[in-house]
Amino acid sequence: MIELTSDPGWELLEEHPLETEFDIVKARQSVRQFAKDAGMGIVDQTRITTAVSELLRNMYMYAGGGIIRIQKGLFDHHQSLIITCLDEGPGIDNVELAMQDGYTSGQGMGYGLPGAKRLVDDFELQSQPGKGTTVRVVKWK
Amino acid sequence: MNETNITNAKQRIEHIEDILSSVAAGDLDLRIESEYEDDLTGIEEAINLLIDDLTHELKKSLKLKAEMEEKLLKIQEQQKTILQQQEDLMELSSPVSKVWENILILPVIGTLDSQRTQVMMENLLQKIVATGCTTAILDITGVPTVDTQVANHLLKTVTAARLLGAECIVSGISPAIAQTIVHLGINLSNILTKATLQDAMIYALRKNEQLINGKVVLNQAINEETI
C-alpha cells in the first residue's frame, strides 16, 4: 500500500478494513459522527461524509476493498478531520483523466473523484498501476 | 552383570517400548510397571511422569478445542441472523403505495446500495403497470447520504418509470444534500424535484386536477360533436 506523508501529531480515531458494501455504510456513519464531534455544521458533515462515500465506493468497486483510516489533528494550521483510503487494487492509469468531470472507466457517472475533491478542503491522490491507490481527504471547520 | 539380569533388562526395555507405542497410538491410561529397583527404575518413572503430563495437556487442549468450536458455531449462527436481517430489511424498505387516484408514493429510507435500488426499481415499475398511475413520488427524506451512486440510481429509476409513461417527483432533498449534489457536479435538472413530500403531493394533485379537467373538456367536446 502507498503511504502518504503524515504528521505524527495526528490522533488516530479509527482504522478498519473495508470488505463489503455494508462496511461502507458503517464507515460513513462513523465519519459523520466524528465530523459532528469535531463541531462541524450539518452542511460540512454531509460534505465530508459524501466525499468519503465516493472514495469508499471507488475502492470497493475497482479494488475490491481496502483500508479506511480516520484521524484528527492540525492540517495547514486548521483543526481537521483527516480521512485516508488505502487499497491494493489495480491503480489508476491516468490520474489526470480520472480527475476529469464525467470520465468513468466503469459504470458510474464519472463525478466521484472530482466531486469528492470539490467537497473537501484538501485532497491528495497517489496511485501506481499494479500497486494500489491512496487518497486522503481533509476537512476543517 | 549376569545373563539373567541382561535378559531381564531386555524384557523391561521391550515392555517400555510396548507402552510407548501404545501411548503414541492414543492409549493414555497405560503406565510402565516394574517390580525391580535399579538403574532402569528412574527412567521408567520419568517416562511415566511424561505420560502423565502429556495426558493432562491433551485433555486441556481437547477442552479448549471444544470451547472454540462452540464459540465458532455461535458466531456462525449470529452471522446467519445478520444476513437474514439484511434480506428482511431489503424487502421491508421498498414499499410502494397508492395514496390517491393516479399517485404512487415510494418512501426511501436508509442507504441505497445497488442491490436495494434494484428491488426498489422493480417494485415501483411493477406497481406503475399494475395500477396505471402516472405520477410517482420518490421521497428521499430518510436517505442520509446522496453520493453519485445514489444519484445515478435515482436517475435510472426515474428514466425507467418515464418509459412506462409515469412522471417521477423526487422529494425530501435537504438543504445540506442540495449543496452537496451541486458540489459533486451531478446534474439532476431533468428530474422534477421538490423540497418536501407535501410540495410533491400538491404538485401531483394539481396535475390530477388538470387531468380530470382535461377529461371533462374532452368528454364535452365529444358529446357536442355527437349532438
Provide structural commentary.
The complex is a heterodimer of chains A (141) and B (227). Chain A has 141 residues and is α+β, with helices and mostly antiparallel strands. The longest helix of chain A has 22 residues. The termini of chain A are far apart. In chain A, strands 1-2-3-5-4 form a five-stranded antiparallel β-sheet, with helices on one face. Chain A is built from four helices and five strands, in the order βααββααββ. In chain A, helix 1 packs antiparallel against helix 2 and helix 2 runs antiparallel to helix 4. Chain B folds into two domains: 87 residues; 130 residues, Transcription Regulator spoIIAA (2-Layer Sandwich), CATH 3.30.750.24. Chain B contains six helices and five strands; from the N terminus they run H-H-E-E-H-E-H-E-H-E-H.
Characteristic terms for this protein:
heterodimer; A: about 140 residues; alpha+beta; Heat Shock Protein 90; 5-stranded antiparallel beta sheet; 4 helices; 5 strands; B: about 230 residues; alpha/beta; Transcription Regulator spoIIAA; 2 domains; 5-stranded mixed beta sheet; about 65% helix; about 10% strand
Task: Give the helices and strands, then pairings.
The complex is a heterodimer of chains A (141) and B (227).
Chain A: E1 11-18, H1 21-37, H2 42-63, E2 66-75, E3 78-87, H3 95-98, H4 112-119, E4 122-128, E5 132-140
Antiparallel strand pairs in A: 1-2, 2-3, 3-5, 4-5
Chain B: H1 3-25, H2 39-92, E1 97-100, E2 103-109, H3 114-131, E3 135-142, H4 148-163, E4 167-171, H5 175-184, E5 192-194, H6 197-226
Helix pairs in contact in B: 3-4
Short description:
Chain A is an alpha+beta fold and 141 residues long. Chain A has 4 helices and 5 strands; from the N terminus they run E-H-H-E-E-H-H-E-E.
Helix count, DSSP H or I runs of 4 or more residues of chain B: 6
- Text of the CATH class of the largest domain in chain B: Alpha Beta
Name the shape of chain B in a single word: rod-shaped
Please trace the helix and strand order of chain A, writing H or E for each element.
Answer: EHHEEHHEE
- In CATH terms, what is the fold-level topology of chain A? Heat Shock Protein 90
